[in-house]
Every structure is written in structure tokens, then in C-alpha cells.
From TrEMBL:
Pathway(s) where this gene product acts: Isoprenoid biosynthesis; isopentenyl diphosphate biosynthesis via DXP pathway; isopentenyl diphosphate from 1-deoxy-D-xylulose 5-phosphate: step 2/6
UniProt-listed Pfam families: IspD
Function: Catalyzes the formation of 4-diphosphocytidyl-2-C-methyl-D-erythritol from CTP and 2-C-methyl-D-erythritol 4-phosphate (MEP).
Main enzyme class: transferase
Organism listed in the record: Anaerobranca californiensis DSM 14826
Site residues (Transition state stabilizer), renumbered to this chain: R15, K22
Top-level taxon of the source organism: Bacteria
EC number, as in UniProt: 2.7.7.60
Name assigned to this protein: 2-C-methyl-D-erythritol 4-phosphate cytidylyltransferase
Coiled coil residues, start to end: none
Gene Ontology biological process terms from the UniProt entry: isopentenyl diphosphate biosynthetic process, methylerythritol 4-phosphate pathway
Site features described as Positions MEP for the nucleophilic attack, chain residue numbers: R158, K214
Amino acid sequence: MKNIALIVAAGSGNRMGTNIKKQYLKLAGQPMLARTVLLFEKSKNIDEIIIVIPQGDEQFVKKEILKDITFTKPIRLVDGGSNRGESVYNGLKTLQNNGKDIVLIHDGARPFIHESLIERLIKFLRENPKEIGVIPVIKVKDTIKIVKEDTVIKTPPRTDLYAAQTPQCFYVSKLLPIFKKVEKELNRFTDESSLVEAFGYKVKTVIGDEFNIKITTPQDLIIGEFLLKEGLV
């Protein structure tokens, strides 16, 4: 009965606008991916770590990104695919289909995940073994508009809107068969929850963490540096 962190860091980070892949950019002098991995390495709730990286980056990641981390847990580097879904699936296929194992799928570009959130997600799923999975969400603060061709089509009630975060937490034995069913169409899904929902399953939620931000743009990088400087994360 293991809890496995599957860290997805195989993207190119085009929206960051740099020649360096965003997961390798530094925050307060430390590569973002290293910071993310270290949080799971230190977690008392995680037994194993899988990092999904761009094809051909294995030696670079070992020598430049993870070189200062002393690992006490099993760690594997796995080549990513052409989209997030394929990358996650590549990681999942390395796992044994143990009925009690839990996988926590986390964005490599979310370097401020807190131990308390990891613990809450695992605790919920262990206490509710009939559920397929649970994800962290936070309430949307802005009014959201559905827009087509520069025209507002609908304004959904803000009370019903939440933003999804990671890690998204699932039983491996329940998630892997779903991925197998749609392995040729994984580009359709933006996260694991949406894939599971497409098959009619209900995904549970817990309240996430406002500081568990995803570093996607240069502005996010500035915010991340500020959070670290002020000791907020």
C-alpha cells in the first residue's frame, strides 16, 4: 500500500517566452522542478517519486536539476509524451496495478505544494476507498464569462465555479484502466479529473491552497519570487 508522487514536467513552457523550459527555470536560485521534487522527497506521506520529463533530458535532469537532492525514496525518470495526457500515461504504465496504491499526479511547475494538502488528499481517499479520486480546488474570485467570437454567451453562477489544482489523487487500479481505454485520445483532456468525469465517474474535492500556484508566465515567476522572499511558502 504505497502513495506515489507522479510529477509531470515534460512540457516545453512556451507561454514563459524563454529558451529554457519553464520547469528548469530558477526560483530563488533553485530550479523550479528541483523545488517541487524536494517537497515530495521530504513528505512523510510519500513512498515513491516518478518524474516525467521531456525525451532526451534524462542526463541533464540528473546532473543539473536534481544534483543537490539526496534521495531517501525510490525515484524514476520517465520520458514524456506529446501532450499532458500521454505524459501522465507513460508514468502510470510504470506502476504495478496494486489495488491499494494511490498516485498523486502533480504539475512540476507547482513548486509550493504544502505537506498539509498532500496529507488531506491521501487521508480522504484512504478513508473513502469506494471513491475513484479526489482533487484540490479553490473558489473562483472573478466573474467568469463564456465567450465565443468576441461575444459573451453566458455568465455562469460564480458560486458553482472552482479552479482545479494538483496533485490530483487517485487509486492506481481505478485510474489506469480508464487511461488504457482512451490512450489514442489523451490530448482531449486537460487533467486527470476531466478524463475520469468523461466516463461518468464522480470525482471528489477538498479545498486547496491559495499559494499552490502554477508557474506558467513571466508574471507567475515574479509572484513566485515574491512569495519566497516574504516567507509565505
